[in-house]
Amino acid sequence: FAWRALLECCISGCDTVSDLSLPAWGEYDEPPGAVAVSTRWRGGYSALIGTALKSVEAADVRLGCRATSIQLGTGAGPKVICTAEGRRTEVEADHVLVTVSLGVLKRSVRGVGLTFDPPLPDAKINAIQRLAFGTVDKVLLLYETPWWEGHWTSLRLLWTAEELKVQRCAEGDGVETASSPLCASIAEHDWTRGVNSFNAAKSVTGLECWFSGPSARTMESVSDDDVIDKLHALLARLSGTPEVPSPSRVLRSCWFENLDICGSYSFVPVGASGSDIDEFAAPVGDKCDLLFAGEHTHRSYYSTVHGAWWSGQQAEYDG
After folding, report:
1. Which of 51, 246, 264, 288 could cysteine-pair with 255, CB 3.0–4.6 Å?
2. What are phi and psi of 300, to 5 degrees?
3. Is the pLDDT assigned to residue 174 strictly greater than 50?
4. What are the residue ranges of helices labelled H in 185-286?
5. pLDDT in tens, 228-277
6. Cβ partners under 8 Å of residue 160, min gap 6
7. Nearest in space to 173 (alpha carbons), one of 216, 109, 121
8. Higher-confidence position of 35 and 148
9. Model pTM?
């Protein structure tokens, strides 16, 4: 059970399986053809972005420009205030489609980062606060040779219940940094206990593993050398393979520490429901001046790229 629970945490993005809402469990759905899409994808996510950009004029894309405020009722239409290299820019529009992550919006309703003027309706703020935004990270260890070949292609780790005992970090919406007081209790925790398996990578000579919750947030706070040393020691101890070489390099995601994301993707926790997602996705204003899209606004496909894509199409229709 403990192994399956760790796997579910990585799938759902929760800290523990006890975080998940059982009544909302059946609302998440798999789209038709999901397996075919995942196996036939070419070019990674950059191909998806390239497809989207084909319908947008190059001059309309502003890189390195952070939206700091969204203002409604300022005259002709809504206005977005941006800053780039210390310079303030105002962009007027007929509609504003907000696609920032749930993690960024959780910071916003607490008065940190992006602001809304006037403030968002209470119903939308409540939905933002009730829904949860978890952290899931991937680590890829690169090697000169595939030393595991002939021994195994997937190594599953079974931890005892005692080994998995750890005080949860960043209770609540999980937007604190890994150095905050809420995370101090986990600083000495062996974050490698968050590994439930090592799997041979398909496109490079390497082994990949996933982390979620406290283990992911703590892993992000340590150096690349520490990640290499700790995971190498774990493999040497548990792989059953003699003379395990040290990785030549590590690649990893750090979604929690990225203040443009503040986590990975959403899930419906205890106390929330799919109705909160619907409320989140609802436009604001009589003329739909303010619209929302992103994986966290799709009731059936939250936490997914296709959910984010389709929510954007729905918002375009609503606007």
Report:
1. 264
2. -100, -30
3. no
4. 213-221, 224-238, 274-281
5. 999 999 999 888 877 899 999 999 999 999 999 999 999 999 999 999 99
6. 2
7. 109
8. 148
9. 0.85
**What is the maximal distance between C-alpha atoms in the chain?**
71
Helix (H), strand (E), coil (C) string for 163-191? CCCCCCCCCCCCCCCCCCHHHHCCCCCCH
Cα distance between residue 69 and residue 120, in whole Å: 12
Residue 192 main-chain phi, psi, to 5 deg = -65, -15
**pLDDT above 90 (res 59):** no
Taking a C-beta distance cutoff of 8 angstroms, is the pair 73, 119 a contact?
Answer: no
Computed over every residue of the chain, the mean pLDDT equals 85
Kindly give the interhelix angle for 122-130 and 274-281, rounded to the nearest 10 degrees. 130
Q: Considering only 4-8, 54-58, 110-114, 129-133, which range has the smallest mean pLDDT? A: 54-58
Please state whether beta strands 249-252 and 265-267 pair in parallel, antiparallel, or not at all (unpaired): unpaired
Among 269, 149, 123, 167, smallest CA distance to 207 is for 149
Domain-by-domain residue ranges, the chain? 19-28+63-133+266-318, 136-165+180-252
